[in-house]
Task: structure prediction
Amino acid sequence: MSSVRIGVLISGNGTNLQALIDSIESGEINGRICVVISDREDAYGLIRARKHGIEALFINKKDFINNSDFNKKILEELKKRGIQLLVLAGYLRILSPEIIKEYRNRIINIHPALIPSFCGKGYYGERVHKAVLEYGVKVTGATVHFVDEGTDTGPIIFQKSIEVHNNDTVESLQKKVLEVEHTLLVKAVKMFCQGRLKVIDRKVLEV
Ligand code: GRF
Result:
């Protein structure tokens, strides 16, 4: 089976991107990251990509008159490179319906909580862990899912929980959850590239 052409969208540090790069380089994932796109010029993930010889683009939303045109540009860059799988690795914007339609069940996102808790509009980054601590839940974790038109509502691929302890802080939770994210994201992308993820209605089956 030929390797899957992957595009990655990021907004920040890119440790999830790094986990993918490492797993591709080690041969665990049968894929190739053909482009990394960031909506932030200073995203460290762009440097990570370039260090590994991966094309890395900054697309500035301010250069476009509206969100739709900004997304059209992203879609154009993806299609130009024949991208087959799109991974959102810490990408903080909402994708347009055009991108979702074009890549139905071919966009994977990682979320730092157990969906459907602590997700949706406004739940990103540290805010998620802050909300987890404020609510006082005893478990949290990470979810990897396909992206649909909603915010964090698409079919769930994998989830893994961790315990929340009394002495946990936003930072400690973020660190523990991030480790889980890396494992889950790699596992999901690996299985996608093997053609082993099948979506039936809302359910993702391993085939
Ligand atoms: C992760 O927690 C991810 O789930 C969230 O943003 C963070 C990005 O981390 N959406 P990184 O940029 O991959 O290091």
The chain has a mean pLDDT of 97. Strands lie at 4-10, 31-38, 56-58, 85-88, 107-111, 139-146, 156-163, 197-200, 203-206.
